[in-house]
Amino acid sequence: MSKRTDTITLRGMSFYAYHGCLESERVTGTRYSVDLECSIPLEKAGKSDNLKDTVDYSLLYNIVAAEMATPSNLLEHVAAKILKQVKYYAPKVKSATVTVTKFNPPFEYAQNALDAEGTSASVTMSY
């Protein structure tokens, strides 16, 4: 008997946010992308075609959007807050993984701004 793994995944959620330790990051902000994967039994929803038997994508998106709108120093903190809210508001989710990606992060030791252009930094956390 194989163990079933079902997932709901939201990929490439795009935000403009103001996370970071530097004052300039809190003033100018930058682009972010968030991916959220939730493991949840979906067999019942697959048979019933009823939203109450699954987790609404809108709920998951709104959790992510709310945490992205609240400035934090660290991407780790943002990811942890997203996971905490998913666990609380979507108890059907058995486990979740979130990746928060910051585009064009400031690099203190870059020779010039062009050295870091087009780069990104990501944090992935799970429960």
Walkthrough of the structure:
The chain is α+β, with helices and mostly antiparallel strands and 127 residues long. It has one domain: GTP cyclohydrolase I, C-terminal domain/NADPH-dependent 7-cyano-7-deazaguanine reductase, N-terminal domain (GTP Cyclohydrolase I, domain 2, 2-Layer Sandwich), CATH 3.30.1130. Helix content is 34%, strand content 29%. The protein is built from five helices and four strands, in the order E-H-E-H-H-H-E-H-E. It has a four-stranded antiparallel β-sheet with strand order 1-2-3-4. Helix 3 runs antiparallel to helix 4 (75-89).
Q: Note poorly predicted spans.
A: none
Overall mean pLDDT: 91
- Sheet having the most strands: 4 strands, antiparallel
> What's the level 1 CATH class?
Alpha Beta
Separate helix tally: 5
Choose one word for the global shape: elongated
Topology, element by element:
Blueprint (H helix, E strand, L loop, with lengths): L6 E11 L5 H6 L1 E10 L3 H6 L8 H12 L6 H15 L5 E9 L9 H4 L3 E7 L1
Antiparallel strand pairs: 1-2, 2-3, 3-4
Helix pairs in contact: 3-4
